[in-house]
Amino acid sequence: MAKTKIKRRMKSGDFMLVLITMALVIFGIIMVFSASYYTSINKSGNPYAYLIRDVIWAGLGLCAMMVTASIDYRIYGKFAKPVMIVSIVLLVLLFTPLGIDRNNAVRWLGVGGITIMPGELAKPAAIVFTAWFLSRDPRLIKSLTKGVIPLFVLCGIYGGLIVLQPNLSTAITVCIIIIGIMFAAGLNYIYLGGLVGAGSLGIFVLLITNPDSHWMKRFTSFMDPFADPLNTGYQVVQSLLALGSGGLFGLGLGKSIQKNLYLPEPQNDFIFAIIGEELGYIGCLILITAYIILVWRGIHIAINAADLFGSLLASGISIMIGIQVILNIAVVTSSMPPTGVTLPFVSYGGNALLIFMASVGILLNISRHTAAVE
């Protein structure tokens, strides 16, 4: 009987992953232009302001994706600790004069006209560090003291610093990413239940101890947005009206009513509502299908990765994309309280688009290094 052996095989990359990503980015540019048209005129007098910036960021994102696709993903493991430390330092710097206050939240760092969102950078940093930490020894995830607790503490550090901005949605996303990678590495179901329970308890305590906070107002407005349609429930109500108006086939591209200064910042977190209004249920279904294929390709890459680090890294990126899609659509459809999470590759936002496209480049590189059975 011929011996079976495993060796590393170089591939050109996952073509389907590239195709879906570029389709989403191009679709996002079109929808950002459509959704932001009147908002852009109202704010700057130029209907193409958001379009131009989004195209620039997409171009930068494409460059970032090409670069990360060409870099051996194993290199990231060597910088896992410094990347994690830098991401935490950036979060701390938000509470210095470098932090920029917008809409009663300090989520941006500004230096010389350049702004970055440390909360967005925390996501890939958490993915790289967690994947590296657990890939050093597969037995770590079975150890409560050496594997589970250290990563639980990391969740607390990231979550605490991001909540203080305040930005509960990003804090939840980062924690879910870390726990998701732990689950992919083989986390015991009892430990998983404990982590999820502790996180849920923390959110509950945060809400009840801050009854006048904007988080509690968002939660109560989610329960019945039409109870206060002109204040706390306004954005969700406008979103539901947009989705309802779209029907099965939509009003047609560019023909949204709610983007005419009814739905605030329609090109950002609530762009899915404009997609539903203009392209209808069918358009939304096609978009969701594209995301499912994208996440499926990421999972496929994770399963076939040549080593544990690559597998966990691909898992983390897939989780990051998938959880943001779920959270964004859930908010827009009033299935959960508003969170402020962007729709990957589609919503307007330079930092997020750049990070998502660079992350896809990492997935492409991992897909080139596969385990071939001979």
TrEMBL record:
Metabolic or biological pathway, per its Swiss-Prot or TrEMBL entry: Cell wall biogenesis; peptidoglycan biosynthesis
Catalytic reactions of this protein: [GlcNAc-(1->4)-Mur2Ac(oyl-L-Ala-gamma-D-Glu-L-Lys-D-Ala-D-Ala)](n)-di-trans,octa-cis-undecaprenyl diphosphate + beta-D-GlcNAc-(1->4)-Mur2Ac(oyl-L-Ala-gamma-D-Glu-L-Lys-D-Ala-D-Ala)-di-trans,octa-cis-undecaprenyl diphosphate = [GlcNAc-(1->4)-Mur2Ac(oyl-L-Ala-gamma-D-Glu-L-Lys-D-Ala-D-Ala)](n+1)-di-trans,octa-cis-undecaprenyl diphosphate + di-trans,octa-cis-undecaprenyl diphosphate + H(+)
Pfam families on file: FTSW_RODA_SPOVE
Membrane as UniProt keyword: yes
UniProt GO cellular component terms: cell division site; plasma membrane
PANTHER family per UniProt: CELL CYCLE PROTEIN, PEPTIDOGLYCAN GLYCOSYLTRANSFERASE FTSW-RELATED
Species per Swiss-Prot/TrEMBL record: Aminipila butyrica
Record GO terms (molecular function): lipid-linked peptidoglycan transporter activity; peptidoglycan glycosyltransferase activity
Protein name: Probable peptidoglycan glycosyltransferase FtsW
Family: Belongs to the SEDS family. FtsW subfamily.
Main localization of the protein described in the UniProt heading: membrane
